[in-house]
Structures are given as C-alpha cells and as structure tokens.
Design brief:
Largest sheet: 10 strands, mixed
Distance between the termini: 14 Å
Number of domains: 3
CATH topology of the largest domain: Rossmann fold
CATH superfamily of the largest domain: Glycogen Phosphorylase B
CATH architecture of the largest domain: 3-Layer(aba) Sandwich
Strand content: 5-15%
Length: 821
Amino acid sequence: MSSYQFNKEEFKQEVTSNVKNLFRRTIAEATPKQVFQAVAYAVKDVLIDEWIATHKEYEKEDAKTLYYMSMEFLMGRALGNDIINIKARDGIREALDELGFDLNVIEDQERDYALGNGGLGRLAACFLDSLATLGYPAYGCGIRYKYGMFKQEIKDGYQIEVPDDWLRDGNPFEVRRDEYAVEVKFGGYVRTECDQYGRNHFIQENYQSVRAVPYDLPIVGYGNNVVNTLMIWDAEPINTFNLESFDKGDYQTAVEQENLAKNIVEVLYPNDNHYAGKELRLKQQYFFISASVQRAVNKFKAKHDDIHKLPEKVVFQMNDTHPTVAVPELMRILLDEEGLTWEEAWDITTKTCAYTNHTIMAEALEKWPLELFSRLLPRIYQIVEEINRRFVERIRQTYPGDEEKVRSMAIIYDGQVKMAHLAIAGSFSVNGVAQLHTEILKKKVLKDFYEMDPWKFNNKTNGITQRRFLLHGNELLASWVTDKIGDEWITDLPHIKKLALYADDEKCQQEFMNIKYQNKLRLARYIKENNGIDVDPRSIFDVQVKRLHEYKRQLLNILHVMYLYNQLKDNPEMDMVPRTFIFGAKAAAGYKIAKLTIKLINSVADVINNDKSIKGKIKVVFIEDYRVSNAEWIFAAADVSEQISTASKEASGTGNMKFMLNGALTLGTMDGANVEIVEEVGKEYAFIFGMTSDEVIAYETRGGYNPMDIFNNDQDIRRVLMQLINGYYAPNNTELFRDLYNSLLNTLSTSRADTYFNLKDFRAYAEAQKKVDQAYRDEKWWAKAAIMNVACSGKFTSDRTIQQYVDEIWHLDKVTVDMDE
C-alpha cells in the first residue's frame, strides 16, 4: 500500500514558496492559475520520488516492459486524478481551503491535455491508469502535439475550429529528457554496399532528419507508489538555423529544417482529405514510432548483450493501424544496425509486436499511396516490399492457384500499402475490442487472415477507469457507494456488484435519485453559464456525447427530436415527461455532413428552446468543446445514455460504460459493447431497439434498401424530412440542409442512400423513446434500474481489460514498489 503520508502544514508551505519562486508573489496576491501551477509542482515533488523508486524497482527486477504505441492519448487533466491516486485529495482540499482557495476552482485552471480526440485516445489513457494501478511496467508512446485537434467553438450554430494552445502556460508535470533524444530520417535514397562476405548493407543518404526529444509525464497508480511514464516526443531541427544558406540569401533553406520539425508536432493529425495532410500524417506516425522503437532497443541493449532475447523483455502494442510502421522499423534496426539475417530479424519482430484493431469501417483501415510511402520512407518501403513478397509466397503455398486470396490479403496491392495487413502479418496477436466486434473481424472484415492464422486472433473487451469516471467525476455517488459497500471497488470494480442488495431499498433509491438530482443541478448550472439555456433538472436528461460520425447516428437522434416537437405542436396538451436532449461532439474539420449535423442540432435547438407554446417540455442543448473534463460532469448527470450506432459499425464504445457506471440507462442498438452491457445488467434495465448486426450486414450484402419506400409510406417521417428542405429550421436558406436530406434519400443519384439505416430504424427508435417516457414515471422502478446499472458495471473496468492483455498477450510481471526501504 501507499506509504505517502500527507503533511498539511508542509504542503501549505511548499505551495506558498512555489508561488513566491515561480511568480514573485505572496499567496495572498496569487491568481487561481498561479496557485494551480504552485500546487502542481508541490504534487509533482511527491510523484518524482515514487517515479524514481518505480523505475529503480523495474531495473532491479529486469522486468519485461510494455510499450503502448498510440497516435492519441486523451488524458484529460492530471492534477485531480493524481491527487486521488496518491490518496491526498481530502488533505489537499483542506490545505487549500486554509490558504483561501477552492480545490475545484484550482483544478479548473488546468487545460485538458490536447493529445487525442476520441475513444481511441481515451481508451489509451484508461489503459495507462490501469497498468500503473496494477503495477505493470509500461510506457505510453505518443506525440507531444503543440495544438490538440482543435478547440470547438459554436458560432451561429456552426462548429468553428480554433487552435487549442494547451501548452501556452507550460505543463508543470512534464519532464524533458534530452539525454534520450534520437534522430529520425525522412526521404532521400538508399545506397547498397556489399561487404567482403558478400552481405549487402543499406545506407540512407541525402535525407532530411529531425531530432526527437522525449518528454515524460507521470502516470500514477492508485495508492501503490507506482508511477509509470507517458513518453511523448517533440521534434526539433538537427541544425537549428543554417547560417550559410541565410548569408547567401536562401532564407527558404535556412528555415526548412526548423519548419520540418515544427510541422510534425504542430497539430493532432490533420484532416487527410488532401495529399499534404496525408503526407504529414505518415510523417507523424513514422516520427514517434521510430523514436520509440529506437528508445526501447537502446534501453534493452544497455542491460542485455543478446538482441535475440528482445521479445522476452519488450512488447510493442500497436493501438490501431497508425503505429504499424513499428514492424518495418524494428526490422530496419535489427537488419541494418544489429546486422541480423532476415530470418532472425523477422522471428524477433513477430514475437515482439501485437496489434489491436479498433474498427470495422473499411475506410478507417489505413492505406498509403505507394508513391508517397516509398518517397518519404525509402528504406522502410524496401523492407515492407520484402515482407510482402514473402507473405504473398506463403499465401500461395497455403492456397495454391487462389489469386483471389493474394488480391485480398497482400500488403502491397493496387498501388497501395495496406497497413492493417502489415500489422497482422508482423504481429503475434491481433485483437478486437468487444465480443461482437471480434466476431465480425473473424467472419467478415479479416476473414482470410483469420482462416490462415486463427491462433493470432483474440478479443479484449474495452474498459474504463472507475477512478476517473466515478471517484473523480462523481464524488457524491462515489462516497455513497463506499458508504454502502466499502472502498474495494476503487481497485476491484466487480466488488460493486454488492450494490444490488440495495436496489429495492426505498431509502437507498431516494438517496440515489437525490445524488443524480444534485449532479443534474451542477450540469444545469454549467449549461446556463455556457449556453445561456435554462434546463429543468427534473426533466429526463437524455444524452448523446461522442465523436460526430454518421455511423454513430446523431442524425437519427435529432430527427426524432424534430418528430417529437411536431407531435407537441399538433397536440400541446400531449402527456409527456419533460425531456432535455443533450448533445456533445466534435466533427473532423473536413467532414461536411458531420459539421452540417451540428448546425442542424443547433438550428433545431434555436426553434424549440424559444417556443413558449410547448411549455418547456423539450429542450435541446449542444455542449460546446466536448472533452474529458466536462464529460465527467455529463456522465454523472445523465438519465439516458444514447448508444444508437448502426449495428455492426461501433467496434466497442466506452462512453456506454461511463454512463452505466454513473447510473444512466442505455438506450441503444445491439452493437459493440452494448451487447455485453445488456448481458451484464439484463435486457429489462435497458432500452434496446433496431436492426441486429446480422440484419445490417445482410442488407449491405444486397446493396442496401430503398428509403423512398419509408418516405412514401410514413407521413411523420416524410414531414420531418421535408422540414430539412422547406426552411422550417433555416428560414433564410431553404437549401442549407439539402445535403442531409440527400444523404437519407439520395433521389438525385444512383449511389446508395441512408447508408446507416436511420429511417429503417426510426420507428423502432421512436418506440424505445416512448418506453423511456413511460418507465421514467415509475420513480421506484427507475431508481432500481439505475442502481442495477451501477451494480452490474464491474466487468467494464479497464483493470479487467489490462489483466486479460497481460495474461494472454503481454505476459508481464507485477512489480511492487516499497517506499520505506
């Protein structure tokens, strides 16, 4: 257990002296932002001791180490989480209180770490938390983006992207590690030299390169003294400024090096619908992967003589296809720098690399144009070509005469490098992230690979960390749970099952619903402050927050709101429980339909929220700049969790788990991890609707369906769709939502319409929404259902997911860190 003893007086003294040293001010003169910095440095002081001790222990044990490679780590804020994990929150709150500051206000000064943008990055963050809490040696490896994806502002209902300058005030928790900087090379050409033994050596020449410098961030385990590391790479020019070029008047060349470095880490991968965007994306991927693999190999070699033993001490987990260049990069190091034969290098690589697939959507499985890939990474491309040649040979041996197999499985085909195929060929493990998702991969998306190497494939259902999403995000509920069943759930979430004993207890039901009400009040204040909208905390808070994508079907949700509003207008006395529909989502900058959906949500909100005749029965709120820190409040306040993706499209989802943990009921399709959520809590405590994944896949195989049949036969749906193009929600521009209308009906062209079956599922969704309205009226039933959801959330902890990865893929050993030695 943690041996850190919090000393309030010492802490107050340290904060006061930090304010003096950092800002030349007394504590009485300090702003909340300055106090945040001072508190962060005081906390870091504690963390550094544990950090050093942790790494000493790892070295002593010579422990096998995981390198978790991800383009994104959506960390949220650090301070609140860290002080919970060193078990000092109450002490620090009291100390700040005595200094005249409120901990909540101080925590609010910290910017969310802008290192990710969606579920993929948040999953990586939860995994790091669990790895540290379970005591497993691990590094997160990523990029130190100067600007995150973007800060979202809503102007006139439209999403506007503004730079998220999250590092503007510095990051008090990071430590720059100049001593571990490495060089990363791009472009040029490869020269071959033959030595006296007839062996070829490959030398990259005339390349551009950058210096990769790691910044370490502490990842704090809960109450166990373990501090792991998130290692994010910054890029610097090798020669800062070419004076010679400058003197000759060639300013371009003088700053070229600087710009190359700056661009790589400037922003979380840009929208890649143009070539330059794609090139930067590939540069970013190779940049952080090459740096991380070099660092891992150097670290291994510092203690071990035999490079063949690398897989015994190192494992690379590739989080989606973005880090796939880890396979050829490790090969490059083993071949070119360690002088191994191809067979030796391939044996080591395929025992060290493992791949997580996060998507069923074909368009998200990365493919790179050959011309770009070979020009930017000439040596890596040569290696990929050879991997492909040998892989294709193996396919032909396994399936003689079946060229169709080669076409569907080759790594290089049709002028493209297929990264998922490379990841599968180069890994010893390929996993999906929910039972349904993994089955679809095996039977459909990656069927040929599964048939050839079934032993590689396995499932690891995603999870979330209860320490952030309950203990930190919902203090009232966390205290209530601990009062009822003790605090074991904090590190052993299945323990929460014991709450089921209280689900029928009327007093407990009232306490629970009162906590939910308090959390709804907190969110209502946030909405009033940020949106200027008054929402009734006694209404049903019906929430959909996640990335905006057509398959997630925010459009279905808002179409239903329009339909409900029509019903109310026709029948103002209609009996319905007041409902607040809450949306939060960022759309990728170049994703037109997604951005138009945001505009539609806001246009509908303008009309509905200002219509006095419906007496506040419906309110629509779009929360600007959805991110981890406001998500915590949203999950705590939600009554209904909208998880309505088209079945078979959502790999897992983790928002669904965060809502469940906070006592919201799932309204959803049988997709992703919803299937397992319903398995745990029982169908009676969720609202499930819509087509199954088998039905969707069957329709897709036949080329879709004809939405015009529904349009012609269902006048309620027709009315809603006509309101998209008759100016009802855009009186000044009737054509504004034409693209949305066309995407649903596409009367103008032969391409498929309503690809995500919004209209097909509409009636089933409306029925499920009616059931929600009926069920909410029975307060006792609702309270019981909500408590049961919390009680059944035990499976969905990232601690369980990580333990499965460790047992079945990584084979790491737990390390105990004792601070008393």
